[in-house]
Every structure is written in structure tokens, then in C-alpha cells.
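Recall the central idea of this unit: under ordinary conditions, the amino acid sequence of a chain determines the structure it adopts. In this exercise we apply that idea directly, starting from the sequence alone.
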Amino acid sequence: AEKLSSMKDMEWNDVLQRMCSLLDSTEKSTGAARSKLNLLYYLCTIAVHKEAASRLINSQLFPILIQQLRAASNWDIRAKVARVIGLLALHTSELGENVPVSEAIILLTELIRDNFRNSKLKQCLLPALGELLYLIASKEEKKEHPRECWVVPSAAYTVLMRCLREGVRIFHC
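Accordingly, the structure predicted from this sequence is:
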């Protein structure tokens, strides 16, 4: 993570482009899925560093993570993508206005609602949703006026409260 943080823009863009290409690949082989999972494990490792997390969440990688959360047929990949999103939200120190945080919240909310009886899946998705909500709240608290781009749909609070009422134990996948 330190090495990534200290890279010059050109090197950083090359590495980021390779990561995005691998995640965005539509290849369905077992090897491709394994490569995506390995990259997601790597991203979990570097996402705990503030500088790396800030660079990653504010890059083109974040929309690709959202797309993978929506489209991946492999639930192991979806769970690991949710973990990366949660770690990025937890450890970032900067959040650009153009980061599609609301889109991620909407998608996580839909996935939890659509799979509400699947406790294991909820336990993987809820931490990411919680971290994104906390990130938005902490960033808005520092500003006098909330930003429109960080609007949270009421369904997210409804789903979260329903999960809490049902006593879902939350842990990281």
C-alpha cells in the first residue's frame, strides 16, 4: 500500500488500469474468477491504508466495484467486492463529490432486501452498507450544508432497521 501511495501518477494509472481491466473482464472461466478473487483479496489488504483507500475510492475502480456487485454471478466475488467497498469507506480520508456512493448504497440495499432470508449474505453486505452510511454522515457533519450527491434513500434505513430488529449478527466476510 505504501508503494502504491508513493507512485507517480503515470505508474498509478497503469496499475489502476490493470486492476480495472481484470475486474471488468467478462470471461467466465474458473481461472478468471480465481484471478478476480485474488485481486479482491489484494484490494482488501491495501484498502486499510488511508492514502491507498482515498486514491482507490476516488478512482474509476469504485464504479467498477459497484458494477461487479451488481453483475457478478459468483457470490464469493460479490461478497468480497462488498468487503472491499466497506474497507474503502472505512479507511478513506477524502471523498470526491463524483464518487457514486448513493449508487452503492442503493445497490447494497436492494441486494439485502432481495436476499433478506439469506443470513450469511446479509452478514457480508450489511457492514459495507453501514460503512458507507457512516462515511456520508461523517463527511456531512463536517460541512454546513449536506451535499445532494450523498442523498441516502429511505429504503436503506428501513432495511438496516429491519435487520437490526431481527437481530442479525454482523461480521466481515
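The chain is about 70% helix and 0% strand.
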